[in-house]
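ok so for the tutorial part 2 we go from a plain amino acid sequence to predicted structure tokens. step 1 is just haveing the sequence, like this:
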Amino acid sequence: MDMILWVLPYLGLGLVVGFFAGLLGIGGGGMMVPLLTMIFMAQGFDDAHLVHMALGTSMASIVLTAMSSAYSHHQHGAVLWDVWKQMILGLLLGTFIVSFYTSYLPRTFLAVFFSVFMTYVAIQMFLNIKPKPNRSLPNKLGLGLVGLGIGGISALVAIGGGTMSVPFLTWCNVKMQHAIATSAALGVPIAVAGGVGYAIAGWGEQGLPVYSVGYVYLPAVLLISVVSIFIAPAGAKLAHQLPVALLKKIFAVILLLLAMKMLDMVF
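step 2 — the prediction. this is what the tokens look like for a chain of 267 residues:
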């Protein structure tokens, strides 16, 4: 029974996350964090570490998915690697530093920040709000600072940064195709730095479950990653056959409900 308890939910989560990642081009952190919190709670993990574990495990789980997505976009020649190079240092620093210091933040703060940010994302997605392009990309220092901010916020909510980098790039007159592709590539260093940061932040903490590396629960990472990588291409294929605009609205409502559930679990 214990084996089924921690295998099936992770496989199911990988299925859902991979599908929506392929269909809507998102990393899935907005869904994973509250759902992982619920699963970890059901498994009897220490309450003090629930949110930290969910954030760290979610971040580590999107590494392979992000790599797969970035490689696919690279094959189509859509990634702006010059922009990527100018943002990566800021991304790495912002993501690693914030994820490393999350161990000093109470779980209530993390849950509230996550829920508020995901509510903003849900509203933006539901209303299909897009910034009007009215300027050009900033210089190398400016891109580095933007990367720092995107990386820091991504670490706090365990996402690949696409909800921020895509609007920023399109606002700077980057074509949507290149913005999405470059954002996918930016998601790789964010996921890696975040996963490492959360692993180090939780290193030596008392009360963590077996098979954990800091705040990263390895069985969940493995099962979610394997399933999501294989199902993501199916989601991408269906994107051309299903009413994506309607599915985005449905997904936005799901995000909003999960954000509310997150608050309910920690208060």
